[in-house]
Amino acid sequence: MRLGIDLGGTKIEIIALTDEGVEVFRQRINTPQNDYAQTVSAIVHLVQQAKQELRQKLLNSDCSIGIGIPGGISLKTGLVKNANSVCLIGQPLKDDLEQHLGQTVRINNDANCMTVSEATDGAAAGNEVVFGVILGTGTGGGIAIGQRVITGVNAIAGEWGHNPMPWRSKEDGQPLDCYCGKQDCIETFLSGPAMLRRFLQSGGIADSPPEIVAQARAGNQQAEQFMAKYEGWLARGLGSIINVLDPDVIVLAGGLSNIERLYQNVPLHWQDYVFSDQVSTQLVKARYGDSSGVRGAAWLWPA
Asked: What CATH number corresponds to the domain at position 259?
């Protein structure tokens, strides 16, 4: 039996899966805001609750525990780094949880968890090399090979979003600062906030990315032209990934993954940037949506 936990900025979700991937328990609570100690306590309580529920169902409560977080564990210090939930940064989350729970836990980036979930029994099941992308508030990425997550020697494998947008031209607009301290990162083009910001800079009027998509669907030429430009940016970013990793499948998750036109249009463009006479990589939508992260956390432990 496996327990997976998705620690997000607004919610903490836990799931129990059998070794065959069958869900037998799920619970979701609000994340304590800006309180590390309460966050640890909430996770411990959820694990205890899940194990009690499994015992009541006469199921095996001797579970492995995997946790996805919006950041990573520094291989140098063992502390949390690069986390959107800032109260986690610099904290010994793995050590604290293992002390409270009395067992080893595995912690990985939430995009990595999504990717391994989709590679194991999701939209990319049966494929050897999978690249996963969360297009939302940021542009997280992850790599799974043989259904195993690849973390990397620096614990940043798959973090494509903080590379510069490739094949940049004047038509792409003015450079934008990224929160990482650099300019023109892929994230400043493709994240949800960046998409809206660039549309507004182009003279468009909208309150959210879905509104831009709706305007384009309704025949607004400015919105349609912008969406075509966005698809070109995504094709460039993913084209550079194909040139390096050559994945069988690229899986999109996050809010912007619900833009259905991406799956038809982006592959039409990325041929222009991939160093091959044929591109067989598939672009697919995550099967499990916002549940991919919590399922992938459970799959951090191999059978």
From this structure: 3.30.420.40
Exposure string (b/e) for 102-130, b if CB count within 10 Å is 16 or more?
eeebbbbbbbbbbbbbbbbbbbbeebebb
Average pLDDT of the segment spanning 218-231? 97
Residue 109 lies in a domain: yes
How many beta carbons lie within 10 A of that of residue 91, not counting itself?
16
Tell me which residue range forms the domain holding 177: 125-286
Say whether both 97 and 148 belong to one domain: no
127 phi, psi to nearest 5 deg: -105, 145
Give tens-digit pLDDT for 31-66.
999 999 999 999 999 999 999 999 999 899 899 999
Q: What is the pTM for the complete model shown? A: 0.86
Question: Please, are residues 51 and 89 in contact by the beta-carbon 8 Å criterion?
Answer: no
C-alpha to C-alpha distance for 238 and 253, rounded to whole angstroms: 14
Answer whether residue 9 is part of any domain. Answer: yes
Alpha-carbon distances, residue 203 vs 9, 36, 154, 189 (angstroms): 32, 42, 41, 16
pLDDT tens per residue, range 124-150: 999 999 999 999 888 989 999 999 989
Structural domain tally of the chain?
Answer: 2
Query: Per-residue pLDDT tens for 164-217?
Result: 999 998 888 888 888 888 999 999 999 999 999 999 999 999 999 999 999 999
Residues 109 and 130 in one domain: no
Chain-centre distance for alpha carbon 45: 25
Residue 226 lies in a domain: yes
Please check whether residue 120 lies inside any domain of the structure. no
249 shares a domain with 162: yes
Please state, in angstroms and rounded to a whole number, the distance separating the CA atoms of residues 133 and 62: 32
| Predicted local distance difference test score (pLDDT) of residue 8 | 83
Q: What are phi and psi of 238, to 5 degrees?
A: -75, -30
